[in-house]
Design brief:
single chain; alpha+beta; eight-stranded mixed β-sheet; 31 strands; globular
Length: 957
């Protein structure tokens, strides 16, 4: 009773003022879930019919584009902020030197919600700078197009140059990671400190100053910031001298910065903070003073990665920019922005404390730095001509976030994660009928923002990597340098990239590709069309040892006729002489819907296409070859490269989901995992295991799934020390250990639950935090039925931690409890107000709720019970927002598998009444009905039958 009182006292709280919460970012690495959070796939029927099928290049409303009558040359921007007082108002003056391209009496820029006070037209002075004032000009802003139109009294002639001077005021935005926005943190004394920083991509520069806010309209920038004298200012370029006293207020100074190279408005960046600075060579890291020790690793990684990329590109970063600064913005979420010379990050993806942060945090910090640094070439040195080609930025950055991390830290084996984290992720989103192609036009700010999606990142990175493998490293790098040299400090289209690579082929490998095609034709078949193909390999098993290859666009929910032909690069190897090393000369091209090729592989030997899965396509085989592959995997899996083992697992499962294969094929194939020791195949199987778990938990068939899962884990689990860390363990071994521990404990493995509980109890007795590299598994599983004292001890670690990544790990761990009172108290903290809860971020509050219902059925019940109290629902919506309540109801429905659970859901829906939209309630009931109906589908019947037979006669596998 005393312990329970301690728990309630430590956690219970009252509601505070409402707040909003951040949406999930597009980047797959920005909110990497722990293995303990069960994800749910969208039902296949939900993927179709919501959007029109895209054309090759759709028309857009061009009225949102700026007219082509003037073009910027140089900006002088002066801003004044009192953010140290938490004042959200700022003022500024921008002087824009522009050139007239066509005869005009108007000059048009962008403006979003800035109050323009006055605007003047000036001559350009002899020797540069703004000269004599010509006139004060009338101005107006269209709130839809966000065009600021300035009318002059004279006709401006082509070739002439003028300065436009605009005085304006604006308001800092609140923690929304857009435009010029305010953030805050708590110092060591519990005082809240405020700062202001910028994030302009893609269309937010216009909310900080009137400007030509399109990526092709590059100019140089000269910046000065007036701010409180105890604060410091940082920007793309170094300071031009020391800050000078402000003549209007002795408490302020003005920081002036050197002139930037030509760059797009979305890359301008600055911040006003009281941060501390760590420096090494020409790089610095800025962060709040109470996390200074956590900046050592990102500074080291930044230097190593930037040097590695400079060597790889054969174009030095420092040829264009004199310095590199990384800045960690508190309460910015987990995003990052590649501003030239001033890369900004949310704290969880930059700061690293080896005493508390996990190997996953170190991986994320390393690869995200590599992603943002790759942008210094792909996006900053060469920018997209228009947002239609955003994949020229994000696709390359996704590829090199893994490749450059590998170059800088070869021992990390980061490249091994590319297949399972990027290619497999891209397949999931790109299998929808309504998905867009890589080249996709947009006009409005919301349309442009929507382009930053899985297609821009994961698909584009996968397609680029495919051509990197096909062309070979020498040709690829020669082509990239040619492309970047030709387009430096300018914009680029897809054709510019194709041209650079074609030039490399002509110079280095003129006979590598078929003589009848250009590189543009090959790549355009992937970049200008949506989706990806499934390559079907049908072996003839005749004397000639041939196979018929055919291609068809892969869709997860249906098959549709399509006349499009992808130029598919294929390579293969066979069981008679396995060779899994891809070479440019080893690729053939399927340039038609179907073709017959000679394989040279004996009929009694297996064949595998797409060595190491460099190609961006799935592969299906005839039934006999699938049997040969299953046989070799069961007998000697090492004969097949581990990336191809992951490919086989992922392809077989998804082909079965799309009804290309009998579901028994992936189930039989995955049973080989009992002999698997590599991470990639196991994590590839994770989506299949999660899918089956979600369908079967809480039903009469779940016990059979447990037998199947335990069978897979039987050999590997005893080889892993799940409750300790060995010095020699590699990154991939740590990933594997957490994966295996997750599934062993999830399916009730007695030893797993006992060891993790014992490890947590020992840590509690010693009052020593668990080693970070096993913390996720030990905390989560150890807390399943832990005492209130241990639960409060872990909660106190969360409350006292100032490291956002560490706090997220502890949120997920605390959500693993299955004690109703503990979960109720933890959920109550999400609504907390007062000094004890000031450190809770809005994203942390919503994460508490989602982590609880994502961890277990007991967590679902806890959220359900929590929402059955009407007064709490009111507080829930006020604090977390209506969408958080709608999401909670939808997720409860997704995790409802039997009649008693449905009865509880229905009671909740009745209790909520009009507090949720009728569409949410209807969708929730439909989701549960689909869960019930699954057992009457072909897929459900096959799965249930297979697992039942396996549970009774496992030797037949």
């Amino acid at each position: 009773m005393v312990a329970r009182t301690v728990l309630i006292t430590a956690l219970l709280c009252l509601l505070a003022s409402p707040t909003t919460f951040a949406t999930r970012p597009a980047w797959k690495w920005l909110s990497e879930p722990s293995d303990f959070t069960l994800s749910f796939e969208r039902e296949l029927s939900d993927l179709a019919g919501s959007l029109p099928v895209p054309n090759r290049r759709q028309a857009v409303d061009e009225s949102y584009r700026l007219p082509n009558n003037t073009s910027p040359i140089h900006y002088h921007l002066a801003l004044r902020t009192a953010i140290h007082e938490n004042s959200r108002q700022f003022s500024g003056t921008v002087k824009v030197l522009f050139e007239v391209l066509e005869p005009t009496t108007t000059v048009t820029l962008h403006n979003r919600r800035l109050t323009v006070q006055r605007a003047f037209l000036h001559e350009e002075a002899v020797g540069g700078g703004a000269g004599a004032q010509i006139e004060q000009v009338a101005h107006s802003t269209d709130p839809d197009t966000e065009h600021l139109t300035l009318a002059v009294s004279q006709l401006l002639l082509p070739g002439s140059r003028y300065y436009l001077r605009v005085e304006f005021e604006g308001a800092l935005q609140n923690n929304n990671n857009m435009g010029f926005f305010a953030s805050s943190y708590l110092d060591n004394s519990g005082n809240r400190r405020y700062l202001a920083s910028s994030k302009f991509e893609p269309t937010h520069a216009r909310s900080a100053f009137p400007c030509y806010d399109e990526p092709l309209l590059k100019a140089s920038f000269e910046l000065e910031l007036t701010h409180y004298k105890e604060y410091n200012a940082v920007a793309n370029m170094p300071l031009a001298g020391t800050p000078t006293p402000d003549p209007d207020n002795a408490d302020y100074v003005t920081s002036r910065f050197e002139v930037t190279p030509l760059m797009s408005t979305y890359l301008l960046a600055f911040a006003v903070t009281d941060f501390t600075i760590r420096t090494a060579d020409r790089q610095t890291v800025y962060a709040r003073p109470n996390v200074f020790e956590e900046t050592a690793y990102p500074l080291e990684a930044g230097n190593r990665i930037l040097d590695a990329l400079s060597d790889y590109m054969d174009i030095s970063y420092y040829d264009y920019m004199p310095k590199m600064t990384q800045i960690a913005i508190p309460d910015r979420g987990t995003g990052a922005m590649e501003n030239w010379g001033l890369v900004a990050y949310g704290e969880p993806v930059l700061l690293f404390n080896p005493a508390i942060n996990t190997y996953r945090n170190r991986k994320s910090v390393t690869t995200i730095i590599a992603h943002e640094y790759a942008h210094q070439w792909f996006g900053n040195l060469v920018s997209p001509h228009w947002w239609e080609y955003i994949w020229l930025n994000e696709g390359f950055a996704t590829l090199y976030e893994y490749y450059a991390a590998q170059l800088a830290y070869p021992e990390g084996e980061y490249w091994e994660l590319f297949t399972v984290e990027v290619i497999h992720s891209a397949f999931g989103a790109d299998a929808s009928e309504t998905v867009r192609p890589m080249n996709w036009n947009a006009a409005t700010p919301s349309e442009i923002a929507a382009l930053f999606d899985t297609v821009a990142y994961d698909k584009s990175g996968s397609v680029l990597n495919m051509f990197r493998a096909v062309l070979g490293d020498p040709v690829w790098r020669y082509g990239l340098k040619t492309y970047m040299t030709a387009r430096q400090l300018d914009g680029a289209t897809a054709d510019h990239l194709y041209g650079g690579l074609q030039e490399a082929l002509v110079s280095l490998a003129p006979t590598l590709l078929p003589a009848t095609v250009t590189l543009r034709q090959l790549m355009d078949s992937w970049t200008s069309e949506p989706g990806f193909p499934v390559l079907t390999v049908y072996r003839t098993y005749g004397e000639r040892q041939e196979a018929i290859l055919s291609q068809e666009r892969f869709l997860s929910s249906k098959r549709l006729p399509s006349g499009h032909v992808y130029y598919v690069p294929y390579d293969f190897t066979g069981g008679h002489a396995p060779d899994f090393e891809p070479t440019p000369a080893g690729y053939g091209w399927l340039a038609a819907k179907a073709d017959k090729i000679a394989t040279g592989v004996p009929n009694d030997q297996w064949i595998i296409f797409n060595r190491q899965q460099n190609g961006y396509y799935r592969v299906n085989y005839d039934a006999h070859n699938w049997e040969l592959l299953i046989e070799v995997l069961h007998n000697d899996p090492a004969q097949i490269h581990h990336r191809n083992r992951a490919q086989l697992v992922n392809d077989a499962y998804n082909l079965a989901r799309a009804e290309w294969l009998d579901f028994a094929v992936p189930l039989r194939l995955m049973s080989y995992l009992r002999r698997e020791t590599q991470y990639a195949p196991w994590t590839a199987a994770g989506s299949a295991l999660t899918y089956l778990y979600n369908k079967l938990r809480g039903t009469a068939h779940y016990a059979h799934f447990q037998v199947y899962a335990n069978h897979l884990l039987l050999d590997i689990y005893p080889t892993l020390a799940i409750d300790s860390v060995a010095a020699q363990e590699t990154l991939l071994q740590l990933y594997l250990k957490q994966f295996i521990t997750t599934w062993a404990c999830r399916v009730g493995h007695g030893d797993c639950l006992a060891k993790t509980k014992q490890a947590l109890a020992a840590a509690y007795q010693a009052r020593t935090p668990v080693h970070p590299d096993i913390a996720t598994a030990v905390y989560c599983n150890g807390l399943v039925d832990a005492s209130d004292e241990i639960f409060v001890w872990v909660y106190e670690q969360f409350k006292s931690s100032r490291n956002q990544a560490h706090r997220t790990v502890l949120i997920d761990a605390l959500a693993c409890s299955r004690q109703p009172a503990q979960l109720e108290s933890f959920l109550t903290t999400a609504l907390g107000s007062g000094a004890e809860f000031d450190a809770l971020l809005a994203t942390e509050r919503t994460r508490i709720v989602s982590a609880v219902y994502g961890a277990s059925r007991e967590g679902v019940d806890a959220v359900l019970d929590f929402l059955m109290v009407p007064s709490r629902v009111t507080e829930f919506v006020q604090r977390l927002g209506q969408s958080a309540l709608n999401s909670a109801v939808s997720n409860i429905a997704s995790r409802t598998n039997n009649q008693p659970e449905l009865d509880r859901l229905n009671a909740l829906l009745v209790s909520l009444g009009s507090q949720i939209p009728e569409s949410v309630a209807t969708s929730a009931r439909s989701t549960v009905q689909n869960n019930f109906n699954w057992f009457n589908t072909l897929e459900g019947l096959v799965v249930v039958e297979f697992l039942e037979q396996m549970a009774t006669t496992p030797q037949e596998l």
